[in-house]
Fold Spermidine/putrescine import ATP-binding protein PotA.
Amino acid sequence: MAAEPTTQHQDQASGRSGSSIELHGVTKQFAADSIALRGINLKISGGEFFTLLGPSGCGKTTLLRIIAGLENASDGEVEIGGASVTDVPAHKRNVNTVFQSYALFNHLDVRENIGFGLKMRGMDKAEISKRVTETAEFIKIGNLLGRRVDQLSGGQRQRVALARALVNEPDVLLLDEPLSALDAGLRSELQLELSRIQRRLGMTFIFVTHDQQEAMVMSDRVAVLNDGRIQQVGPPQQLYEHPENLFVARFMGHQNLYEVRQQDESGLDTCFGRLVGEFERGTHVLIRPETMTVVREDDVNAGPNVFAAVVRERVYRGHVAEYTLDLGNDTEIVATCNNVGEPMFDVGTRVAVKVQTSGVVTFHA
């Protein structure tokens, strides 16, 4: 289903190489009628930023916990670095987890929180101090080491949680929706910072999120899950531009999805009859909104891939204008146009929409 793992960041990483991960037929059943994972097969390269994406209840956090050793699989095998860890307890896996809730100790200061795991391992105090200081500077919280945890902002707490995980130098870092509680601006900032940290360390990151935009910004590859099954695996661009089924298309945010119910000589019925291409009955057609051009009706001649429409709604998003267009026959399409300083079309304006064939994708449900 997916191509062999390729990581766009690998050539930028440090000399350190994170461990690969392989899952073979991993299943998790909590009760007879509660199956969280259904035969998961997955390969993650060492040094890859890999994201598990899907809605609540799809199994992504359960899968992360099985990799961490915090949950036992009902069936299947887990390998880290080429060795089976299926029966290895969590504390003996060189894996660390950053949780959504931070899980910091409020009675300890930042320095003590970061160094807690090293202290539990019996490391020399001088070495703990050195590694904590270096990690804090790396995460850009060196000035907070003496601060109490309850004096920190949400973003600062998340950085402390990340530093506490990284200071142990794990082969794999697991991140369970660690940014979901942050405001939008800080979340965007930390998305980029996490991606940069991963590139510099060369460590394997496995990130869990329900936010497709977050997955696309940060990841080398993404696995989309639903109902305990992997729906598609690939680089973010592949998942967005070439979804393999209706669930992936919808979850990646696509709205222009049409079922082929009848066929004419061009393969698609009603107002899409002039769309270039042949489409099998029962398939679905996706038209990506950014691959369309909206012009005044009088500015273009009718022809293949050109449709008359009426503007029913306009949403201004700053860098783009998003139009909902009525094509007739109870059919609407959404087009996204870059804001290049030209006047925008008002609601009720008659326009023509040109569709680029590169933006048309077909697939079965």
In short: Residues 21-94+170-250 form a domain with the Rossmann fold fold (CATH 3.40.50.300). Residues 1-15, 266-271 have pLDDT under 50 and may be disordered. The CA atoms of residues 271 and 338 lie 25 Å apart. The longest strand covers residues 21-31.
